[in-house]
Amino acid sequence: MPVLASPFAQLDLVRHPEQQGEPLQAFDAADEYLLSHLHDQGVSTQSRVLVLNDSFGALAASLAPHVCLTSSGDSHLGYIALQRNLERNGLGAVPLAFVPASERPQGPFDHVLVRVPKTLALLEEQLIRLHGQLAQGAKVVAAGMIKHLPRAAGDLLEKYIGPMHASLAVKKARLLIASAEQRPAPASPYPTRYRLDKPPLTLLNHANVFCRDGLDIGTRAFLPHLPHFHHAVRAADLGCGNGVLGIAFALANPQAELTLVDESYMAVQSARENWLAALGERPVDIHADDGLAGQPADSLDLVLCNPPFHQQQVVGDFLAWRMFQQARAALVTGGELWIVGNRHLGYHAKLKRLFRGVDQVAANPKFVVLKATK
């Protein structure tokens, strides 16, 4: 396994969740470039450094023993990876603060290091929240591999932070370096809202929520086919996003007990606010987690899921397969996993490896809705 070597540390890092024979490493040249640049700027144990969107903890684990560090991001999986990598490298006792992206980091910060996220709306909201949190003379340095670094990222730095220039490329990575200057407090365009007719709902979406400007077409295909029960059931919306599946199911099944879970803190924040608007004080468990990893075995009658097919920039069905395994473990015998997926992903065959029965509930030219029975 490659070691991240920087002026601050030599670290053995893993991704989370881990794959057997993991083909990808937990850091890249953009992490190395950021750390080298910060070292060249000069920092001390009193330097206040904010790290944003550190996918697997490479930046935070490197810096934590050397500066006063705050790390913030929207991935609970990323937070778990950070904790594991600190422990793995004997840094478990090193103090650092972690702030979910649903909350505002409290400065002032002398340096801000940003891994540019896939969703630029998240970057925009994070830059907006830096207003009033930067020390005089602070620099905000964003980084990414050039193939994943859109021009718009630099435009956002110019808009919300100050004058920006791009570095030379090193190992196919680039830095965008912005000098903080006094600006009027910006207004955030987030959260966004959209309206559904069936069921009649107005859904709020914080910046990093998938399809925050309108219902995604997979969920649209799923909603008319959600199951109905005439008795109490224990159900989970796995990867709940803004909570639309769980909320729609709860409205149609007034006796159901619901758990909504997502690895995105902003998704969980959105789902909580949407549940309160639609269902008031009806009891519910909405939280960030590594899927159903924390759910007791044999404790659910039903799991609803519109599974993701990527982790950051990496496309594949690894996360979906893991969610299917978690659902099977959490379901009682006879319990059901209902999913929607693109036809070409072949989830029917994959589910048959885990469940005793798999039935097609509905289909259109692009999507299938499947029911898998344990």
TrEMBL record:
- Specify the enzyme's EC class, one word: transferase
**Catalytic activity, as annotated:** guanosine(1835) in 23S rRNA + S-adenosyl-L-methionine = N(2)-methylguanosine(1835) in 23S rRNA + S-adenosyl-L-homocysteine + H(+)
Ranges of residues in domain Methyltransferase small: 201-371
Q: Per UniProt, which keywords does this protein have?
A: Cytoplasm, Methyltransferase, rRNA processing, S-adenosyl-L-methionine, Transferase
> What InterPro entries would the database entry show?
DNA_methylase_N6_adenine_CS, RLMG, RlmG_N, RsmC/RlmG, SAM-dependent_MTases_sf, Small_mtfrase_dom
In terms of SUPFAM superfamilies, this protein maps to: S-adenosyl-L-methionine-dependent methyltransferases (SSF53335)
Q: What is its EC number?
A: 2.1.1.174
GO biological-process terms attached to the record? methylation
Instruction: Name its cellular compartments.
Output: Cytoplasm
The answer to whether keyword rRNA processing applies is yes
The chain positions of domain RlmG N-terminal read 2-181
Q: Which Pfam families match?
A: MTS, RLMG_N
Where, if anywhere, are coiled coils annotated? Answer: none
What GO annotations for molecular function exist for this entry? methyltransferase activity
Superkingdom as given in the UniProt entry:
Bacteria
Q: Into which family does the record put it?
A: Belongs to the methyltransferase superfamily. RlmG family.
Q: Give the protein's biological function.
A: Specifically methylates the guanine in position 1835 (m2G1835) of 23S rRNA.
In terms of PANTHER family, this protein maps to: RIBOSOMAL RNA LARGE SUBUNIT METHYLTRANSFERASE G, RIBOSOMAL RNA SMALL SUBUNIT METHYLTRANSFERASE C
The name this protein goes by in its record:
Ribosomal RNA large subunit methyltransferase G
Instruction: Give the organism, scientific name.
Output: Pseudomonas triclosanedens
What does the record give as the organism's lineage?
Bacteria, Pseudomonadati, Pseudomonadota, Gammaproteobacteria, Pseudomonadales
